[in-house]
Every structure is written in structure tokens, then in C-alpha cells.
Here is the input.
Amino acid sequence: MTNAALLRWQQLRRAAYRRLPLFLSDYIDGGAGDELALQRNRLDLDAIKLRPRVLRQMTDVSSTTEILGCECSMPVVVAPTGLNTLIARNGDVTLAQAANRAGIPFILSTASFTPIRELRAHVDLPPWFQLYAQNPALTEHLVRQALLADCPVLVLTVDTPTGGIRWRDGRNNFRVRPSRQMMAQTLFRPRWLSQYLIGELSERLRPKRQQLSDDLLERKLDRSFDWDDCARLRDKWPRRLVLKGILSAEDAARAATMGVDGVVVSNHGGRQFDAAPSSWRVFSEIKQAVPAGMTLLVDGGIRTGDDVVRALALGAKGVLIGRLPLWALAAGGSKTLDAMFLSLAKQIIITMTLLGCQSPREVDSSRILEDWPG
Ligand SMILES: Cc1cc2nc3c(=O)[nH]c(=O)nc-3n(C[C@H](O)[C@H](O)[C@H](O)COP(=O)(O)O)c2cc1C
Here is the structure.
């Protein structure tokens, strides 16, 4: 097999950073505090070793699966990331369309500048919608919009009662209304600056969305939001509901008792709480605490096909990818996104073939070496 169609994530990341001003590459890459949680995501993931089985007729390997009622070409979902339209012109639409073409779901973030109904007009498959609890009226409005846009899954992010401390964003004076420091950095990236000035200025000046993203960047989140509010949301939202940002078995079990359909085991890509464990370290205890029917997704550091298959072996139905598609978006837009998704799908097939598994269903915990402490 040739490696011609395969892309290394390091290559994508380098290409992205040649295009982006520093405040954006730092915004994407950065983590909370001293970035230890961010590092743990990769270190713990790297430590998971999988035992291959051989001589098993690997003639019909397929990565297709179903996640929360959605048919997926591979067990991968594009994670919600805010401010995608700063990274590239029409960033949300470009990402969502590429995810559509790749046959996987895209999650639109509350912190995006693109209204749900506008995104919906540009894609065949409705996106999932990620909700940050802000003031109740706004939350209700967003839930209604998600219903009207046919979003099949609502993803409530629960690990943000306040914003994490991100030193890199502080150093760059990063905010939605550009600071002088940000403007100075853009001068070193003329290509980014010109597309930004042409395309995004008008979008960014929409008063409502600007306010919403400003509030999120300044962390005006609803700190009073609790399990009762979550139960009320469950009553209001008739379709699949997922909690994102769960790291404790007790919280996962409680979510299951109130009829939540799934959780994303996640430390928010290491961006919130630096003392938090990696999702990998706590995944197994969470898996044991929830009923078999609950969908478990996981994220934090996924870069390769091996990583996706490691998550399946732990017992996840699928993974979310955050930084990987953002690097592809910044590096070359639609074309590079298509190449990245194709490369990831190929890598997953190669990993499954080497492991001796014909479908994601066949990848289970028996493949994990006993020296994994998680
Ligand atoms: C630039 C950036 C913005 C993000 N914005 C959001 C967001 O608006 N809502 C949310 O729930 N998670 C957000 N996240 C977290 C991702 O959804 C996801 O949990 C994380 O990126 C996964 O780790 P990975 O980037 O290593 O794949 C963001 C992550 C990044 C990198």
C-alpha cells in the first residue's frame, strides 16, 4: 500500500501556522495553565498499546458505524470549536460541508459566528449543535433554533462553569474585537489578513453574534446551571442529548439516570482545567458506571487512525476531533480538509486491518495490553 494519500498531522499543523497570525495559532494549540492536561492527553493516549491478532482473513474491513442514530463512514465526529470563521473565511460552512462529504457529523459551537439556520442552508445533513449555558432566554432561543434546523443531537458542554486560564491568549491580548497586539501580528500574515478583511468583517459586525462570542471569550457563562437545569433541558429537547466534558463516573451515571443519551468523556482538549486527568485515564471507570445502552464518545489529542482505534478498544463508540480539522481548514480549506478526512479514514482501515478487526464492533478491550493503567 502506498502512503501517497496519507497526511501527517505534524505537516498539517506546520502548514496551518505558516498561514495564521500568532494569536490564532496560540488560540488553537493552547491549553489551560501550564498545559499539563493538554500534554497528558497525548502522553496517556500514546501509552495505550494494542495487541494485534493474525491470520484472520482481512478482506472486507470497513470503518462504517452508527453514532446516536447517524450513519458515519468512520467513528469520528468534528468537535465543536468556536470562532472557526476567524481561522478561515466561512470556516463553519467549509468544515461542515467537508464533514458532509466525508460522511461524518459536524458539531456547530455556540461560540461560532455562524447562525445555525444559515449553516443549515449550506449543508445536506443537519449539524449537531453544541450548547453553552448562558442566560436562560438565550439558551432557550438557541435550543429553539437547533430544533428548527433539524439538529438531531444537542451537545451540552458541562465543563465550563467558568473559563480556564489560558496564558497564551492573555499574552496575545486575544479578544473578538481585535487588540492592537493582534493587529500587529496579522501584518506578518498578509494572506490571512486579506481574506479576513474581505470576507469576515461584515459577518463579525453582526451585533447579536458578536455579542455572544464576546461574552463567551470573556467567559460570561451561567455558573448557576445545575443538574435541575439539565433535567429541564432534557424535557424540552425531544431528540438525542449528550453531555460533553464528563470526567467522573458519578456524573456519567447521574446523566444516564436522567435520560441523557450519551456523554463525551473530555477535558476540553486540555483547555479548561490543568489539574484534570486526561479523558483516557478515566474512560474505563466511566464505562463501568453507565448502562450498556449509553453512547460513550471521547476526545483529547486524537491525531491518527491508531488513536481512533485506541478509543474504540477502550469502549468508545467514536471520537471527537478538534484541532486536527482546524489545522486542515487553516492550511488549505476544503481541499485540505477532504485530504485530511480521507487520510484519517485510510489510517483507521490500516490500523483495523493490522489489528485483525473487520469492523469497529470487533475492536474491544481484549486488545489493550495489561500495562495500561486507565
Ligand atoms: C480552538 C478550539 C475551540 C474550541 N471551542 C469549543 C467550543 O466552543 N465548545 C466546546 O464544547 N468545546 C470547544 N473546544 C474543545 C473541543 O470541542 C474538543 O473537546 C477538543 O478540541 C478535543 O481535543 P483535540 O483538539 O486535541 O482533538 C475547542 C477546542 C479548540 C481547540
The pocket of flavin mononucleotide is lined by residues 27-28, 79-82, 109, 111, 130, 157, 244, 266, 268-269, 271, 299-302, 320-323, 326 (CB under 6 Å).
